[in-house]
Amino acid sequence: MFKSDRQKYNKERIFPINATGKVESEVFPTNFIKTSKYNIVTFLPLSLLGQFRRYANIYFLFIAIIQSFPIISPLNPISAIAPLVFVLGLSMIREAMEDISRHKSDNEVNAMECTKIVNNKQVKTTWADVRVGDLLFVSENEMFPADIIVLTSYFESGVCYIETSSLDGEKNLKPKSAIKETQTLFQYKEVDSKIQMSMTGNQQLKAQGNPPTPALGDFEGSIHFQNGSKKVLNGKQLLLRGAFLRNTKFIVGVIVYTGEDTKIMRNAEPSRIKQSTIEGVMNKLILGILGVQIIACALSAVLSSWWLYKSFSKHIYIIISESNYTLLSAIAFFSFFLLYNTMIPISLVVSMEFVKVFQCYFINKDWDMYSSKRDKFAKAQTSTINEELGQVEYVFSDKTGTLTCNQMEFKYCIIGDILYGKSDKSKNMTESISNKNNAQQDPAQFKHSVFNFQDPILTGIIENSQDCQRYSDQQRKLMIQSTDKTTTLEIKTQKQLVHEYLMLLSSAHECIAQKDKNSQIVYQGPSPDEITLVDAAMNLGYRFEGQSANEQEFTIKGKQKKVELLSQFEFDSNRKRMSVIIKDNGVYKLYIKGADSIIKARLRPDQPFLGFIQNKLSEFSTIGLRTLLMAMKILSEQEYLAFERQKEALASSENREQEREELANNLEKDLYLLGATAVEDKLQDDVPETIADLLKANIKVWMLTGDKLETAENIAKSCRLIQHDFMVMKYSETDLNKLRVQLSENKLTYQACIRERKKKSVLVEGEALVILTANQQLKREFTKMAMGCDSVVCCRVTPKQKAEVVHLVKNLNKITLAIGDGANDVNMIQEAHIGIGLYGNEGMRAVQSSDYALGEFRFLWKLLLIHGNWSYIRISEMILYFFYKNMIFTVPQFLFSFYSAYSAQTYFDDWYITFYNLFFTSLPLIARATLDRKCLLQKSMQEIKTTLTFIRNQLNILKQTIFTLSNFIFWWGQGFIHGVFVFFITYACFDTEFVNIEGQNAGFATLSITAYTAIIFIVDIKIALYTKFWTCVNVITLLLFSVGIYIAYFFVSNYFRGTYSEFTPIYLIQSPTFYLIIALLNCIVFIFDLVINAVLHEFYSTETDKIIKWRREFKEIAREGNVLQKIEMMQQGKRENGQRDWGDTFYEQILDERLKSERDQNIFDEQQAILDSKAQHYATSPVNLDNSDQSNRQFHQRTELQQIPHPLQNNNAKIINYQMTKQQQQNFNNVNEDSKINHPQQQKMYVR
């Protein structure tokens, strides 16, 4: 039905606008979309080829091939082919189901209908049949079938609105507009409720577009008219495939990009396949095992050749057709290779996939990670790195929308040198942002902004109140001149300044105005900050009503006002500002707002309000408010026309975007400062507690934000990223030499903190970070210092810098996690080992690019410290156990060769070998790896928190304490020794002297099946002993699907003719020796394990053993009373004898908590006394932010109180009385045994 697709066309395109529908040869891709991978013919070969990209599958294919040669293989070929086909079949069935779903989706999309305009008639066609240059008619709520240049809109202004939620997740409507020259190209009329379009005249038009790119907003093009004129196009005229037309009755557009060239397809990257650290180590170990297997095969082959050479003549009954011992040795090598291939388990990879899928299911259905505010569960979007969550060492977090709610409240505004906005009675300017009363609204009712702003003076000025006349008439005398000094705007009074300020807020933005069900104006925009400022202007009487391509409408104090919109420069993370040019009553005005550092650098010299505004911005920063500067400029008519000519000339430029940026830079300078805004973004729920727990769990947290240094520092303190006892080292210099000095000073501070065991944090600005990372020596020194700190705050950083910081740490072999909620966080989310996107208010780009999606930041606690911890432990132990059970199975094969003249005879029957990994031993291990845990669900969340955080702390001190080379060797060695026990004990018991009740000797088959049965019971009992959390699933898989299936097969195999097992099971079940040997082997094996573990715990303690020992010691000390005094005596003895190690800090933390407790009481008493005696009259009063240039006296008085010397800073302070009170002792005794002394947070309960 559809044409085949063409390749991408990556060049600039010029094409005629096809109004006749005539098909011409074209080089552009068709609009046919094909996301499926296979068809009926190609599925089998291509899918198989994909399966053999895995090295494990190649290995087992090689085994199956050589097992098919009778001269080599001692085994039935089917026993190797069947499991390989089973594993490949499962994977190919999954591939087929996924591809069938893709085919259905492709067919549905390609068959969707759209409307073309051909010879002024509307013709229905399918999406797959439209081409570049076709004219399309798109009605309201229709989806665009390709990327389209809008030519005509239903609205006379040319504006139309689109929703791009399917592309970037943003549900806010975006305004697009046709240029004036094309808006009048088409006329329409309604006939029988249907719209008919016709093109005015018979113009021959051409369109031009830049090469297709993935950037959604990137477009440079032009329209070429028949008279030779040309008009520039940009992203405002581009409507994207997959977006919807909203709030607009219809549009007419021309297709510019189709199929693979559309933005949505250019962004459709193949799903990323990440590999966890454990899986990477496992692959290396498999290569090591393969080396051991080759060595064992070579040894057996050499011994086989040696035996033939030395002993063959003595055994005349042996017939050998080949006399070349070298060839015989080579054949023997491959025969032994087949016998020993069970060293590498064929079902390990499939079993891990099953386990990880179940782990993802538990993450997705965890009600503890359900966000009622977002109505979202956590979502695992990749299953390959679950265990990596339990090994995260560094967390990189965005601030806005991640740590904070991204729900802005307009708090203060500065207009000229006057501050407006009053603090409420319960909160003053000296308070930091907290998460008090920060509950977010229901998603359906969520508003990006909150307006509780009150200032009667500002309101009076705006409303011309007589009571505020003296404030309105306050003299300003601000002369704003154009650069050529031919045009001047004189602002004489504060009222005029307020007017320009509020006009700026309501005009310089990218918001659109909509009416809700109650006919109230609702704003939608690219960011909550933008919406908040426009909403504030509306609430202050300057209501933005909407805009077209060349006009803005306002209602100012009840009166309608229109201004001409001439140009607009959008905000982006590099510019950090946005501006508009309007024509207001004949005056050309440029309004601009942006980050204070950016705007300040573009101001004219000698700005009258700059000093006051800078002081206030510093105060705002100390309480974590987000600030912007507002400025303006006047253009003369000649300046504006020159600007327009330069802008039009960009149409023929190859570097159009760069030159447009330069044009904006040249225009946005010599600005006049009007004022500033301060907006509050509150912390999300439980952010401080979550970060504090992560720090205690030895996970370093770095905050990466675009805010200024002071704001970032205060937010960091509010969320406990920087705590009261942290030493903060700052890097803010932008000069290389000064930065070197700052680095040297901080290095001395850092070394002192290490000596005194103080916690430390780094605070670095983006510009300083660029200099530090550009110089290799400075980079090494800074990185070493930052890596040793408990937390790092990077402020004023761009999205690109965020990714570079993550890359810097990632390259040091540290496991990194990045979490954010906006499109500006995508780079760092994709750069980190683990990327987490939050469902936020800035769209779904972060979620779409992430490995895991969460509703709120606080759920990171459970994702890392419970799901991650459990996944790491489960997967690690599963891999170790897989290699153990395969080693115990392979060793008898190896030892049997010494008793069979190295003839490469198999010790076990073919099908017993095949089913060992596939059925008999895998399912109990999968169940354990899916469900095992250390804590019961019945425990309270607080008990689980204290237990798991402490365990996670100890696990992370020495990275990967479970899946290590030493542990692997230990388990593999256990498998080898247990295999030796099985072989020799079975061999010894079933010697030729053994006779059954019928007088028959035990044969080789009896020996083989008895050993096999013993192995099955050993590995099943061992896994049962190591299981800590039992469920019905564990019981069923162990008793029914392992032991039960084996017993069933054991009896059924009695009737398999021509195999070892023929008639053997019946013989064995009648023999008491069979049962005694199995019982004896299990006793010997587990007694051996008990002895080995006792020796290891006594002389080679692991970190877990130390934890158990410390807990036991503490319990014994606690029973005797005088807990802290005894601990101090014990630690003092260890210090004197040089017996300390890192674990002794466990006890020192208890002492520190007691010390802090008594010091805190002293601080409280001392400060309360000072407040009562000297500062009673202002201790609880809010700061009065007056309008003078002088700093507020009360603010400084409270600052002095905060600077009272802190007893905690006195390192010489000593504690004398360590005796616990009766109540403290009672609290200690009441603590649940399972959660005692697991975590420093819990220790407070014992010592206070």
Automatic annotation (TrEMBL):
It comes from Paramecium tetraurelia. It is a multi-pass membrane protein. Residues 19-81 form the P-type ATPase N-terminal domain. GO terms for molecular function: ATP binding; ATP hydrolysis activity; ATPase-coupled intramembrane lipid transporter activity; magnesium ion binding. Mg(2+) binds at D398, T400, D821, D825. Its cofactor is Mg(2+). The keyword Magnesium applies. Belongs to the cation transport ATPase (P-type) (TC 3.A.3) family. Type IV subfamily. Residues 847-1101 form the P-type ATPase C-terminal domain. Keywords: ATP-binding, Magnesium, Membrane, Metal-binding, Nucleotide-binding, Translocase, Transmembrane, Transmembrane helix. GO terms for cellular component: plasma membrane. It comes from the Eukaryota. This is Phospholipid-transporting ATPase. It is found in: Endomembrane system; Membrane. ATP binds at D398, K399, T400, E530, F571, K593, R626, T705, G706, D707, R796, K802, N824, D825. Its main location: membrane. One of its GO terms (biological process) is phospholipid translocation.
